[in-house]
Amino acid sequence: MGHRFLRDPASLTGFLIVGLLLLTALFAPLLAPHDPEPVSLAERLLAPGGEYPLGTDGLGRCLFSRMLYGARVTLGYAFVVLMVTLFVGIPAGLLAGYCGGFIDGVIMRLVDIILAFPNLVFALVVLGILGPGLLNAMLALAMLSWVSYARIVRGIVLSIKEKEYIAAARVSGSRGFVLIWRHVLPNVLPPVAILATLDLGKLVLAFSTLSFLGLGAQPPTPEWGMMINDARPFMQTFPRLMIIPGAAIALTVLGFNLLGDGLRDALDPQGYAGPADRREETRLPNAPALKGGA
Amino acid sequence: MKRYLLNRLLILIPVMLGVCFITFLMVELTPGDPAEIILLKRDIGVTPEALAVARRQLGMEGPVLQRFINWLGRAARGDLGYSYTSGEAVAKEIFRRLPATLELAAGGLLVMLFLALSLGILAALFPRTAIDHLSRLTALLGASLPSFYLGLLLICYLAVPSPYLQVMGLGGLSHLLLPSLTLGFGLAAVYARLLRSSLLEVLQLDFIRAARARGLREAVVIGKHALRNALIPLVTVFGITVGGLLGGTVVVEQVFAWPGVGRLAVQAIFDRDIPVIQGYALFMALIYVLVNLAVDISYRYLDPRIKLGRKETG
Q: Which CATH superfamily is domain A2-282 in?
Protein backbone atom coordinates (compact mmCIF):
# COMPACT_ATOMS: atom_id res chain seq x y z
CA MET A 1 0.00 0.00 0.00
CA GLY A 2 2.70 2.46 0.99
CA HIS A 3 4.69 1.51 -2.06
CA ARG A 4 1.77 2.02 -4.37
CA PHE A 5 1.08 5.38 -2.81
CA LEU A 6 4.63 6.66 -3.16
CA ARG A 7 5.10 5.30 -6.67
CA ASP A 8 2.19 7.33 -7.98
CA PRO A 9 3.72 10.63 -9.10
CA ALA A 10 0.56 12.60 -8.34
CA SER A 11 0.33 11.37 -4.74
CA LEU A 12 4.04 11.90 -4.24
CA THR A 13 3.76 15.48 -5.49
CA GLY A 14 0.88 16.11 -3.10
CA PHE A 15 2.86 14.57 -0.25
CA LEU A 16 5.87 16.77 -0.99
CA ILE A 17 3.83 19.96 -1.31
CA VAL A 18 2.00 19.35 1.95
CA GLY A 19 5.20 18.31 3.73
CA LEU A 20 6.99 21.43 2.58
CA LEU A 21 4.09 23.61 3.67
CA LEU A 22 4.00 22.01 7.10
CA LEU A 23 7.72 22.62 7.55
CA THR A 24 7.29 26.23 6.44
CA ALA A 25 4.46 26.73 8.87
CA LEU A 26 6.40 25.16 11.73
CA PHE A 27 9.65 27.03 11.15
CA ALA A 28 8.26 30.34 9.88
CA PRO A 29 9.81 32.34 12.76
CA LEU A 30 13.24 30.88 11.98
CA LEU A 31 12.99 31.30 8.21
CA ALA A 32 11.43 34.74 8.03
CA PRO A 33 13.92 37.59 7.74
CA HIS A 34 11.47 40.17 9.15
CA ASP A 35 8.54 40.59 11.48
CA PRO A 36 5.45 40.21 9.22
CA GLU A 37 3.25 42.78 10.94
CA PRO A 38 4.78 46.20 11.67
CA VAL A 39 4.09 48.86 9.06
CA SER A 40 6.95 50.90 7.63
CA LEU A 41 5.72 53.41 5.09
CA ALA A 42 9.23 54.53 4.17
CA GLU A 43 9.89 51.09 2.69
CA ARG A 44 6.64 50.52 0.84
CA LEU A 45 6.46 48.74 -2.52
CA LEU A 46 10.18 47.98 -2.74
CA ALA A 47 11.31 45.70 -5.56
CA PRO A 48 12.40 42.14 -4.75
CA GLY A 49 16.03 41.61 -3.88
CA GLY A 50 18.55 42.31 -1.18
CA GLU A 51 17.02 42.59 2.25
CA TYR A 52 13.54 41.74 0.95
CA PRO A 53 13.59 38.54 -1.19
CA LEU A 54 10.07 39.20 -2.54
CA GLY A 55 9.98 42.96 -2.00
CA THR A 56 7.59 44.80 0.28
CA ASP A 57 3.83 45.37 0.17
CA GLY A 58 1.78 48.55 0.12
CA LEU A 59 2.48 49.15 3.80
CA GLY A 60 6.19 48.41 3.64
CA ARG A 61 6.03 44.90 5.11
CA CYS A 62 8.32 42.15 3.91
CA LEU A 63 6.24 40.02 1.50
CA PHE A 64 8.45 36.95 1.95
CA SER A 65 8.01 36.97 5.72
CA ARG A 66 4.29 37.52 5.38
CA MET A 67 4.05 34.57 3.01
CA LEU A 68 5.89 32.30 5.46
CA TYR A 69 3.76 33.37 8.42
CA GLY A 70 0.73 33.13 6.13
CA ALA A 71 1.37 29.39 5.78
CA ARG A 72 1.23 29.20 9.55
CA VAL A 73 -2.04 31.15 9.77
CA THR A 74 -3.75 29.34 6.91
CA LEU A 75 -2.72 25.80 7.84
CA GLY A 76 -3.01 26.36 11.56
CA TYR A 77 -6.57 27.59 11.45
CA ALA A 78 -7.61 25.00 8.88
CA PHE A 79 -6.29 22.29 11.23
CA VAL A 80 -8.12 23.72 14.23
CA VAL A 81 -11.38 23.88 12.29
CA LEU A 82 -10.84 20.32 11.09
CA MET A 83 -10.26 19.06 14.64
CA VAL A 84 -13.47 20.69 15.86
CA THR A 85 -15.28 19.28 12.82
CA LEU A 86 -14.05 15.74 13.51
CA PHE A 87 -14.79 16.06 17.20
CA VAL A 88 -18.41 16.90 16.45
CA GLY A 89 -19.00 15.10 13.16
CA ILE A 90 -17.74 11.60 14.02
CA PRO A 91 -19.67 11.21 17.30
CA ALA A 92 -22.77 12.67 15.66
CA GLY A 93 -22.56 10.14 12.84
CA LEU A 94 -21.82 7.25 15.22
CA LEU A 95 -24.76 8.20 17.42
CA ALA A 96 -27.15 8.62 14.51
CA GLY A 97 -26.15 5.35 12.90
CA TYR A 98 -25.84 3.27 16.05
CA CYS A 99 -28.88 4.48 17.99
CA GLY A 100 -31.20 5.09 15.06
CA GLY A 101 -34.74 6.15 15.83
CA PHE A 102 -35.36 9.52 17.41
CA ILE A 103 -31.71 10.54 17.84
CA ASP A 104 -30.99 9.64 14.24
CA GLY A 105 -34.00 11.66 13.14
CA VAL A 106 -32.97 14.76 15.05
CA ILE A 107 -29.35 14.70 13.89
CA MET A 108 -30.18 14.01 10.28
CA ARG A 109 -32.88 16.68 10.12
CA LEU A 110 -30.34 19.17 11.45
CA VAL A 111 -27.96 18.02 8.73
CA ASP A 112 -30.70 18.46 6.10
CA ILE A 113 -31.43 21.97 7.29
CA ILE A 114 -27.79 23.04 7.15
CA LEU A 115 -27.45 21.48 3.70
CA ALA A 116 -30.52 23.39 2.52
CA PHE A 117 -28.33 26.50 2.44
CA PRO A 118 -25.63 26.76 -0.22
CA ASN A 119 -22.37 26.34 1.76
CA LEU A 120 -21.07 29.86 1.52
CA VAL A 121 -24.52 31.26 2.22
CA PHE A 122 -24.68 29.29 5.47
CA ALA A 123 -21.28 30.66 6.46
CA LEU A 124 -22.61 34.16 5.74
CA VAL A 125 -25.63 33.50 7.97
CA VAL A 126 -23.39 32.48 10.87
CA LEU A 127 -21.13 35.48 10.29
CA GLY A 128 -24.21 37.67 10.11
CA ILE A 129 -25.09 36.58 13.62
CA LEU A 130 -21.59 36.66 15.08
CA GLY A 131 -20.07 39.47 13.02
CA PRO A 132 -16.90 39.31 10.90
CA GLY A 133 -13.65 38.06 12.43
CA LEU A 134 -11.12 35.27 12.47
CA LEU A 135 -12.63 33.23 15.27
CA ASN A 136 -16.16 33.65 13.95
CA ALA A 137 -15.12 32.59 10.46
CA MET A 138 -13.57 29.44 11.96
CA LEU A 139 -16.74 28.74 13.88
CA ALA A 140 -18.87 29.25 10.77
CA LEU A 141 -16.75 26.78 8.80
CA ALA A 142 -16.81 24.22 11.62
CA MET A 143 -20.59 24.47 11.92
CA LEU A 144 -20.80 23.79 8.22
CA SER A 145 -18.27 21.02 7.71
CA TRP A 146 -19.18 18.58 10.51
CA VAL A 147 -22.24 17.74 8.45
CA SER A 148 -20.45 15.72 5.78
CA TYR A 149 -18.63 13.62 8.42
CA ALA A 150 -21.85 12.91 10.25
CA ARG A 151 -23.43 11.69 7.03
CA ILE A 152 -20.55 9.49 5.93
CA VAL A 153 -19.93 7.98 9.36
CA ARG A 154 -23.63 7.27 9.75
CA GLY A 155 -23.69 5.55 6.38
CA ILE A 156 -20.74 3.33 7.28
CA VAL A 157 -22.20 2.45 10.67
CA LEU A 158 -25.49 1.49 9.04
CA SER A 159 -23.71 -0.71 6.53
CA ILE A 160 -21.62 -2.61 9.11
CA LYS A 161 -24.18 -2.72 11.91
CA GLU A 162 -25.70 -5.96 10.68
CA LYS A 163 -22.39 -7.67 9.91
CA GLU A 164 -21.65 -10.89 11.72
CA TYR A 165 -18.56 -9.72 13.54
CA ILE A 166 -20.58 -7.00 15.20
CA ALA A 167 -23.13 -9.62 16.27
CA ALA A 168 -20.24 -11.76 17.52
CA ALA A 169 -18.86 -8.86 19.53
CA ARG A 170 -22.29 -8.29 20.99
CA VAL A 171 -22.67 -11.94 21.95
CA SER A 172 -19.29 -11.90 23.65
CA GLY A 173 -20.49 -9.04 25.82
CA SER A 174 -19.42 -5.83 24.09
CA ARG A 175 -22.00 -3.15 24.57
CA GLY A 176 -22.48 0.52 23.83
CA PHE A 177 -19.32 2.56 24.06
CA VAL A 178 -16.91 -0.39 24.00
CA LEU A 179 -18.59 -1.88 20.95
CA ILE A 180 -18.42 1.40 19.08
CA TRP A 181 -14.86 2.18 20.15
CA ARG A 182 -13.38 -1.26 19.42
CA HIS A 183 -15.39 -2.54 16.52
CA VAL A 184 -17.17 0.28 14.73
CA LEU A 185 -14.67 3.15 14.92
CA PRO A 186 -11.78 1.32 13.19
CA ASN A 187 -13.98 0.89 10.12
CA VAL A 188 -14.84 4.53 10.10
CA LEU A 189 -11.36 6.00 10.34
CA PRO A 190 -9.80 5.29 6.91
CA PRO A 191 -12.54 6.97 4.86
CA VAL A 192 -12.65 9.80 7.38
CA ALA A 193 -8.90 10.31 7.03
CA ILE A 194 -9.27 10.64 3.27
CA LEU A 195 -12.18 13.00 3.56
CA ALA A 196 -10.26 15.05 6.12
CA THR A 197 -7.28 15.43 3.80
CA LEU A 198 -9.47 16.59 0.94
CA ASP A 199 -11.36 18.80 3.36
CA LEU A 200 -8.21 20.58 4.48
CA GLY A 201 -7.87 21.84 0.92
CA LYS A 202 -11.48 22.97 0.93
CA LEU A 203 -11.07 24.64 4.32
CA VAL A 204 -8.00 26.54 3.16
CA LEU A 205 -10.00 27.69 0.13
CA ALA A 206 -13.05 28.66 2.17
CA PHE A 207 -11.00 30.39 4.84
CA SER A 208 -9.05 32.47 2.35
CA THR A 209 -12.29 33.30 0.53
CA LEU A 210 -13.87 34.62 3.71
CA SER A 211 -10.71 36.57 4.49
CA PHE A 212 -10.68 37.98 0.96
CA LEU A 213 -14.24 39.20 1.53
CA GLY A 214 -13.02 40.86 4.73
CA LEU A 215 -15.07 38.52 6.91
CA GLY A 216 -12.27 36.29 8.18
CA ALA A 217 -8.74 37.23 9.24
CA GLN A 218 -8.38 40.91 10.11
CA PRO A 219 -5.35 43.15 9.60
CA PRO A 220 -2.49 42.99 10.39
CA THR A 221 -2.63 39.16 10.46
CA PRO A 222 -0.69 37.84 7.46
CA GLU A 223 -3.37 35.73 5.75
CA TRP A 224 -3.05 34.89 2.06
CA GLY A 225 -6.66 35.64 1.04
CA MET A 226 -6.60 38.97 2.82
CA MET A 227 -3.22 39.79 1.29
CA ILE A 228 -4.79 39.39 -2.16
CA ASN A 229 -7.57 41.78 -1.25
CA ASP A 230 -5.00 44.26 0.11
CA ALA A 231 -3.10 43.98 -3.17
CA ARG A 232 -6.06 44.98 -5.36
CA PRO A 233 -5.13 48.68 -5.59
CA PHE A 234 -1.67 47.66 -6.86
CA MET A 235 -2.98 44.92 -9.14
CA GLN A 236 -1.62 46.44 -12.33
CA THR A 237 1.40 48.26 -11.01
CA PHE A 238 2.71 45.56 -8.65
CA PRO A 239 0.99 42.33 -9.71
CA ARG A 240 3.37 40.15 -7.66
CA LEU A 241 1.64 41.31 -4.46
CA MET A 242 -1.44 39.46 -5.66
CA ILE A 243 0.11 36.67 -7.74
CA ILE A 244 2.36 35.26 -5.02
CA PRO A 245 -0.25 34.76 -2.28
CA GLY A 246 -2.75 33.47 -4.85
CA ALA A 247 -0.26 30.93 -6.14
CA ALA A 248 0.40 29.86 -2.56
CA ILE A 249 -3.29 29.20 -1.92
CA ALA A 250 -3.67 27.32 -5.19
CA LEU A 251 -0.56 25.23 -4.46
CA THR A 252 -1.78 24.38 -0.96
CA VAL A 253 -5.19 23.30 -2.16
CA LEU A 254 -3.62 21.35 -5.01
CA GLY A 255 -1.31 19.58 -2.54
CA PHE A 256 -4.16 18.47 -0.30
CA ASN A 257 -6.24 17.38 -3.30
CA LEU A 258 -3.44 15.26 -4.73
CA LEU A 259 -2.64 13.78 -1.34
CA GLY A 260 -6.29 13.05 -0.62
CA ASP A 261 -6.83 11.38 -3.99
CA GLY A 262 -3.70 9.29 -3.47
CA LEU A 263 -4.82 8.22 -0.01
CA ARG A 264 -8.21 7.33 -1.39
CA ASP A 265 -6.70 5.04 -3.99
CA ALA A 266 -4.45 3.42 -1.40
CA LEU A 267 -6.75 3.15 1.62
CA ASP A 268 -10.32 3.05 0.47
CA PRO A 269 -11.00 0.26 -1.97
CA GLN A 270 -14.65 0.15 -0.84
CA GLY A 271 -15.14 3.73 -1.99
CA TYR A 272 -16.80 4.99 1.18
CA ALA A 273 -15.16 8.35 0.79
CA GLY A 274 -17.12 9.06 -2.35
CA PRO A 275 -16.50 8.48 -6.03
CA ALA A 276 -12.96 9.02 -7.21
CA ASP A 277 -12.51 10.15 -10.73
CA ARG A 278 -9.16 8.40 -10.65
CA ARG A 279 -10.59 5.03 -9.76
CA GLU A 280 -11.86 4.51 -13.28
CA GLU A 281 -8.35 3.35 -14.14
CA THR A 282 -8.79 0.30 -11.95
CA ARG A 283 -12.40 -0.27 -12.86
CA LEU A 284 -11.83 -0.24 -16.59
CA PRO A 285 -8.46 -1.92 -17.09
CA ASN A 286 -9.08 -2.59 -20.77
CA ALA A 287 -11.11 0.37 -21.89
CA PRO A 288 -10.96 0.28 -25.66
CA ALA A 289 -8.87 3.03 -27.13
CA LEU A 290 -11.20 5.05 -29.28
CA LYS A 291 -9.16 6.65 -31.94
CA GLY A 292 -10.36 8.61 -34.87
CA GLY A 293 -14.06 8.33 -35.56
CA ALA A 294 -16.15 10.82 -37.42
CA MET B 1 -44.02 8.65 -9.46
CA LYS B 2 -46.92 10.36 -7.73
CA ARG B 3 -46.06 8.74 -4.43
CA TYR B 4 -42.43 9.65 -4.76
CA LEU B 5 -43.35 13.25 -5.50
CA LEU B 6 -45.61 13.39 -2.49
CA ASN B 7 -42.94 11.93 -0.22
CA ARG B 8 -40.32 14.30 -1.56
CA LEU B 9 -42.59 17.29 -0.98
CA LEU B 10 -43.45 16.14 2.53
CA ILE B 11 -39.76 15.97 3.47
CA LEU B 12 -39.43 19.55 2.27
CA ILE B 13 -41.81 20.88 4.89
CA PRO B 14 -39.70 20.22 8.02
CA VAL B 15 -36.54 21.26 6.17
CA MET B 16 -37.99 24.56 5.02
CA LEU B 17 -39.43 25.18 8.49
CA GLY B 18 -35.96 24.54 9.92
CA VAL B 19 -34.42 26.92 7.41
CA CYS B 20 -36.94 29.57 8.38
CA PHE B 21 -36.31 28.96 12.08
CA ILE B 22 -32.53 29.34 11.72
CA THR B 23 -33.06 32.52 9.71
CA PHE B 24 -35.54 33.80 12.27
CA LEU B 25 -33.10 33.05 15.09
CA MET B 26 -30.61 35.52 13.61
CA VAL B 27 -32.53 38.42 15.14
CA GLU B 28 -32.91 36.61 18.45
CA LEU B 29 -29.22 35.78 18.69
CA THR B 30 -27.71 39.07 17.64
CA PRO B 31 -27.16 41.70 20.28
CA GLY B 32 -29.18 44.90 19.94
CA ASP B 33 -32.92 45.46 20.06
CA PRO B 34 -34.49 45.71 16.57
CA ALA B 35 -37.30 47.87 17.94
CA GLU B 36 -34.80 50.37 19.27
CA ILE B 37 -32.85 50.39 16.01
CA ILE B 38 -36.05 51.06 14.05
CA LEU B 39 -37.00 53.93 16.36
CA LEU B 40 -33.57 55.52 16.09
CA LYS B 41 -33.72 55.12 12.31
CA ARG B 42 -37.04 56.96 12.14
CA ASP B 43 -35.94 59.68 14.58
CA ILE B 44 -38.56 58.72 17.11
CA GLY B 45 -37.60 59.23 20.75
CA VAL B 46 -36.77 55.94 22.47
CA THR B 47 -39.36 55.95 25.23
CA PRO B 48 -40.72 52.80 26.87
CA GLU B 49 -44.11 53.45 25.26
CA ALA B 50 -42.66 53.90 21.77
CA LEU B 51 -40.58 50.76 22.25
CA ALA B 52 -43.66 48.79 23.24
CA VAL B 53 -45.54 49.98 20.16
CA ALA B 54 -42.62 49.18 17.87
CA ARG B 55 -42.25 45.74 19.44
CA ARG B 56 -45.90 45.01 18.86
CA GLN B 57 -45.58 46.16 15.24
CA LEU B 58 -42.54 43.94 14.76
CA GLY B 59 -44.33 40.96 16.30
CA MET B 60 -41.72 40.75 19.03
CA GLU B 61 -44.03 40.00 21.93
CA GLY B 62 -44.71 36.73 23.65
CA PRO B 63 -42.62 33.57 23.80
CA VAL B 64 -40.12 32.57 21.10
CA LEU B 65 -42.47 30.16 19.37
CA GLN B 66 -45.16 32.77 19.03
CA ARG B 67 -42.68 35.33 17.73
CA PHE B 68 -41.51 32.74 15.19
CA ILE B 69 -45.07 32.13 14.02
CA ASN B 70 -45.65 35.88 13.71
CA TRP B 71 -42.46 36.25 11.72
CA LEU B 72 -43.33 33.30 9.50
CA GLY B 73 -46.76 34.75 8.80
CA ARG B 74 -45.26 38.05 7.72
CA ALA B 75 -42.54 36.37 5.66
CA ALA B 76 -45.20 34.30 3.87
CA ARG B 77 -46.91 37.54 2.89
CA GLY B 78 -43.63 38.85 1.51
CA ASP B 79 -42.87 41.12 4.45
CA LEU B 80 -39.27 40.48 5.45
CA GLY B 81 -38.88 43.63 7.48
CA TYR B 82 -36.92 46.77 6.70
CA SER B 83 -33.22 47.27 6.15
CA TYR B 84 -31.57 48.99 9.13
CA THR B 85 -29.32 51.04 6.86
CA SER B 86 -31.46 52.04 3.87
CA GLY B 87 -34.85 51.79 5.57
CA GLU B 88 -36.22 50.09 2.46
CA ALA B 89 -38.32 46.92 2.48
CA VAL B 90 -35.94 43.97 2.38
CA ALA B 91 -38.02 41.97 -0.10
CA LYS B 92 -38.07 44.92 -2.48
CA GLU B 93 -34.33 45.45 -2.21
CA ILE B 94 -33.61 41.78 -2.85
CA PHE B 95 -36.00 41.55 -5.79
CA ARG B 96 -34.32 44.55 -7.36
CA ARG B 97 -30.89 42.90 -7.19
CA LEU B 98 -31.81 39.26 -7.68
CA PRO B 99 -31.97 39.42 -11.52
CA ALA B 100 -28.31 40.46 -11.67
CA THR B 101 -27.27 37.53 -9.51
CA LEU B 102 -29.38 35.09 -11.50
CA GLU B 103 -27.91 36.44 -14.75
CA LEU B 104 -24.43 35.83 -13.37
CA ALA B 105 -25.34 32.34 -12.15
CA ALA B 106 -26.81 31.50 -15.56
CA GLY B 107 -23.66 32.74 -17.27
CA GLY B 108 -21.52 30.66 -14.93
CA LEU B 109 -23.69 27.64 -15.60
CA LEU B 110 -23.30 28.00 -19.38
CA VAL B 111 -19.53 28.34 -19.11
CA MET B 112 -19.43 25.34 -16.80
CA LEU B 113 -21.51 23.17 -19.16
CA PHE B 114 -19.46 24.18 -22.18
CA LEU B 115 -16.12 23.48 -20.48
CA ALA B 116 -17.27 20.29 -18.80
CA LEU B 117 -18.81 18.82 -21.94
CA SER B 118 -15.91 19.62 -24.21
CA LEU B 119 -13.20 18.56 -21.76
CA GLY B 120 -15.06 15.45 -20.64
CA ILE B 121 -15.93 14.21 -24.11
CA LEU B 122 -12.45 14.87 -25.49
CA ALA B 123 -10.84 13.07 -22.56
CA ALA B 124 -13.15 10.07 -22.97
CA LEU B 125 -12.57 9.86 -26.72
CA PHE B 126 -8.82 9.92 -26.32
CA PRO B 127 -8.11 8.29 -22.97
CA ARG B 128 -4.51 8.22 -21.76
CA THR B 129 -3.33 10.62 -24.45
CA ALA B 130 -2.02 14.14 -24.17
CA ILE B 131 -5.58 15.44 -24.52
CA ASP B 132 -6.72 13.35 -21.56
CA HIS B 133 -3.81 14.53 -19.42
CA LEU B 134 -4.45 18.13 -20.38
CA SER B 135 -8.09 17.79 -19.39
CA ARG B 136 -7.08 16.27 -16.05
CA LEU B 137 -4.62 19.10 -15.46
CA THR B 138 -7.30 21.68 -16.24
CA ALA B 139 -9.67 19.94 -13.87
CA LEU B 140 -7.06 19.92 -11.08
CA LEU B 141 -6.33 23.57 -11.70
CA GLY B 142 -10.02 24.42 -11.64
CA ALA B 143 -10.45 22.67 -8.31
CA SER B 144 -7.43 24.39 -6.76
CA LEU B 145 -7.61 27.99 -7.94
CA PRO B 146 -9.62 30.24 -5.63
CA SER B 147 -12.28 31.97 -7.73
CA PHE B 148 -11.38 35.44 -6.48
CA TYR B 149 -7.77 34.87 -7.56
CA LEU B 150 -8.83 33.59 -10.97
CA GLY B 151 -11.10 36.62 -11.37
CA LEU B 152 -8.33 39.07 -10.54
CA LEU B 153 -5.91 37.28 -12.88
CA LEU B 154 -8.47 37.48 -15.70
CA ILE B 155 -8.94 41.19 -15.06
CA CYS B 156 -5.21 41.79 -14.99
CA TYR B 157 -4.16 39.76 -18.01
CA LEU B 158 -7.26 39.57 -20.23
CA ALA B 159 -9.48 42.54 -19.55
CA VAL B 160 -6.87 45.26 -19.17
CA PRO B 161 -5.19 44.61 -22.54
CA SER B 162 -8.50 43.94 -24.29
CA PRO B 163 -10.58 46.88 -25.53
CA TYR B 164 -13.74 44.76 -25.53
CA LEU B 165 -13.98 43.09 -22.12
CA GLN B 166 -15.52 45.04 -19.28
CA VAL B 167 -14.90 44.30 -15.62
CA MET B 168 -17.11 46.65 -13.69
CA GLY B 169 -20.81 46.10 -13.11
CA LEU B 170 -23.70 45.12 -15.36
CA GLY B 171 -24.30 45.56 -19.07
CA GLY B 172 -24.35 43.13 -21.95
CA LEU B 173 -22.13 40.26 -22.94
CA SER B 174 -18.86 42.16 -22.64
CA HIS B 175 -19.56 42.62 -18.94
CA LEU B 176 -20.86 39.13 -18.34
CA LEU B 177 -18.09 37.13 -20.00
CA LEU B 178 -15.27 37.31 -17.44
CA PRO B 179 -17.45 36.98 -14.32
CA SER B 180 -19.14 33.93 -15.84
CA LEU B 181 -15.80 32.40 -16.73
CA THR B 182 -14.57 32.98 -13.19
CA LEU B 183 -17.67 31.37 -11.74
CA GLY B 184 -17.91 28.46 -14.16
CA PHE B 185 -14.29 27.38 -14.45
CA GLY B 186 -13.87 25.89 -10.99
CA LEU B 187 -17.21 24.11 -11.10
CA ALA B 188 -16.51 22.53 -14.49
CA ALA B 189 -13.62 20.51 -13.07
CA VAL B 190 -15.67 17.87 -11.27
CA TYR B 191 -18.03 17.41 -14.20
CA ALA B 192 -15.34 17.00 -16.80
CA ARG B 193 -13.81 14.09 -14.86
CA LEU B 194 -17.16 12.54 -14.01
CA LEU B 195 -18.32 12.78 -17.60
CA ARG B 196 -15.10 11.17 -18.76
CA SER B 197 -15.48 8.09 -16.57
CA SER B 198 -19.21 7.82 -17.16
CA LEU B 199 -18.76 8.12 -20.92
CA LEU B 200 -15.96 5.55 -20.95
CA GLU B 201 -18.23 3.14 -19.12
CA VAL B 202 -21.17 3.67 -21.45
CA LEU B 203 -18.98 3.30 -24.54
CA GLN B 204 -18.25 -0.28 -23.52
CA LEU B 205 -21.89 -1.29 -23.49
CA ASP B 206 -23.49 -3.48 -26.11
CA PHE B 207 -25.88 -0.94 -27.53
CA ILE B 208 -22.96 1.23 -28.56
CA ARG B 209 -21.43 -1.68 -30.40
CA ALA B 210 -24.83 -2.27 -32.00
CA ALA B 211 -25.05 1.36 -33.06
CA ARG B 212 -21.61 1.17 -34.59
CA ALA B 213 -22.50 -2.11 -36.32
CA ARG B 214 -25.48 -0.40 -37.90
CA GLY B 215 -22.96 1.85 -39.55
CA LEU B 216 -23.93 5.06 -37.76
CA ARG B 217 -21.44 7.82 -37.96
CA GLU B 218 -19.22 8.12 -34.88
CA ALA B 219 -20.57 11.61 -34.16
CA VAL B 220 -24.09 10.19 -33.94
CA VAL B 221 -22.96 7.27 -31.79
CA ILE B 222 -21.27 9.56 -29.31
CA GLY B 223 -23.57 12.55 -29.46
CA LYS B 224 -26.89 10.80 -29.59
CA HIS B 225 -26.51 7.40 -28.00
CA ALA B 226 -23.58 7.48 -25.63
CA LEU B 227 -23.79 11.01 -24.31
CA ARG B 228 -27.44 10.79 -23.42
CA ASN B 229 -26.79 7.84 -21.13
CA ALA B 230 -23.51 9.14 -19.79
CA LEU B 231 -25.10 12.38 -18.64
CA ILE B 232 -27.65 10.75 -16.31
CA PRO B 233 -25.28 10.11 -13.39
CA LEU B 234 -24.11 13.70 -13.67
CA VAL B 235 -27.58 15.00 -12.94
CA THR B 236 -27.27 13.92 -9.29
CA VAL B 237 -24.22 16.10 -8.78
CA PHE B 238 -25.98 19.03 -10.36
CA GLY B 239 -27.83 19.91 -7.18
CA ILE B 240 -24.57 20.46 -5.30
CA THR B 241 -23.22 22.53 -8.19
CA VAL B 242 -26.14 24.91 -7.96
CA GLY B 243 -25.11 25.48 -4.35
CA GLY B 244 -21.61 26.26 -5.58
CA LEU B 245 -23.01 28.61 -8.23
CA LEU B 246 -25.22 30.49 -5.78
CA GLY B 247 -22.51 30.73 -3.13
CA GLY B 248 -19.87 31.51 -5.74
CA THR B 249 -21.77 34.54 -6.94
CA VAL B 250 -20.96 36.24 -3.61
CA VAL B 251 -17.24 36.15 -4.37
CA VAL B 252 -17.49 36.93 -8.08
CA GLU B 253 -19.84 39.84 -7.44
CA GLN B 254 -17.29 41.24 -5.03
CA VAL B 255 -14.44 40.94 -7.54
CA PHE B 256 -16.32 42.39 -10.50
CA ALA B 257 -18.41 45.00 -8.64
CA TRP B 258 -21.51 43.16 -9.81
CA PRO B 259 -24.63 44.72 -8.25
CA GLY B 260 -26.29 41.48 -7.11
CA VAL B 261 -27.64 40.13 -3.84
CA GLY B 262 -24.28 38.65 -2.80
CA ARG B 263 -22.68 42.07 -2.57
CA LEU B 264 -25.72 43.29 -0.70
CA ALA B 265 -25.37 40.45 1.81
CA VAL B 266 -21.65 40.99 2.44
CA GLN B 267 -22.20 44.71 2.96
CA ALA B 268 -25.09 43.87 5.29
CA ILE B 269 -22.78 41.73 7.42
CA PHE B 270 -20.42 44.67 7.87
CA ASP B 271 -23.35 46.97 8.68
CA ARG B 272 -24.93 44.40 11.03
CA ASP B 273 -28.05 44.84 8.92
CA ILE B 274 -29.72 41.63 10.06
CA PRO B 275 -33.03 41.80 8.12
CA VAL B 276 -31.15 42.02 4.82
CA ILE B 277 -29.00 38.98 5.64
CA GLN B 278 -32.14 37.15 6.71
CA GLY B 279 -33.88 37.94 3.46
CA TYR B 280 -30.82 36.93 1.46
CA ALA B 281 -30.40 33.62 3.26
CA LEU B 282 -34.08 32.80 2.92
CA PHE B 283 -34.13 33.51 -0.82
CA MET B 284 -30.94 31.58 -1.50
CA ALA B 285 -32.10 28.57 0.50
CA LEU B 286 -35.47 28.63 -1.24
CA ILE B 287 -33.91 28.72 -4.71
CA TYR B 288 -31.44 26.00 -3.75
CA VAL B 289 -34.06 23.70 -2.27
CA LEU B 290 -36.39 24.12 -5.26
CA VAL B 291 -33.61 23.44 -7.76
CA ASN B 292 -32.63 20.32 -5.84
CA LEU B 293 -36.23 19.19 -5.88
CA ALA B 294 -36.36 19.68 -9.64
CA VAL B 295 -33.07 17.78 -10.02
CA ASP B 296 -34.32 14.83 -7.99
CA ILE B 297 -37.54 14.61 -9.93
CA SER B 298 -35.92 14.94 -13.33
CA TYR B 299 -33.33 12.33 -12.37
CA ARG B 300 -36.06 9.81 -11.74
CA TYR B 301 -37.79 10.86 -14.91
CA LEU B 302 -34.63 10.54 -17.00
CA ASP B 303 -33.62 7.15 -15.67
CA PRO B 304 -36.62 4.85 -15.32
CA ARG B 305 -34.31 2.13 -13.95
CA ILE B 306 -34.37 3.86 -10.58
CA LYS B 307 -37.12 2.47 -8.42
CA LEU B 308 -39.56 5.20 -7.49
CA GLY B 309 -40.27 5.93 -3.88
CA ARG B 310 -37.19 4.00 -2.79
CA LYS B 311 -36.12 4.94 0.72
CA GLU B 312 -32.95 6.96 0.48
CA THR B 313 -30.01 5.86 2.54
CA GLY B 314 -27.00 7.83 3.66
A: MetI-like (1.10.3720.10)
